[in-house]
Amino acid sequence: MALSNKEIEDRAVKAVIDFETNNSRQAQDVRNNRRSFDVESTERFIEIKGIERTLSEAGNWRFIQQKSVQLLLKEKNFYIYIVDNLAKGWENAGIYVLNREETLPYLKIAPQVSYTLQIPAKERERFRKK
Questions:
Q1: Is 87 exposed, middle or buried (0-12, 13-18, 19+ CB in 10 A)?
Q2: Structural domain count, the chain
Q3: Which single residue of 12, 13, 32, 89 has CA 20 to 30 Å from 41?
Q4: Are 93 and 130 within 8 A, CB to CB?
Q5: Rounded to 5 degrees, what are φ and ψ at 18?
Q6: Which residues span the domain enclosing 61?
Q7: CATH number at residue 63
């Protein structure tokens, strides 16, 4: 059975908070604070994109809200974490970490002022951290 968007989001946030904690950073879920990102960690503002399947199966398209892109453009400590394989539980998720400088070359403007993050398949593995 497919996961709901909320289940995917919740699992992705759990995986990121666990990853940050394991890397000696303090992280907290700030989704309810109406911020332009999902998790605030030690010196990091993290926008999370969760995927039920693997990134290879899901393809390149990850939509990013305009307010997140605006923060990305002005905040050097803004990160995008792509969390995949969430159907198998947050403990088994893969986490791809892109900092501001790594994200900008792949950011493409899409119609209606939304943005997509298009990372070619041959370049994805260099961002995988778990």
A1: middle
A2: 1
A3: 89
A4: yes
A5: -60, -45
A6: 5-127
A7: 3.40.1350
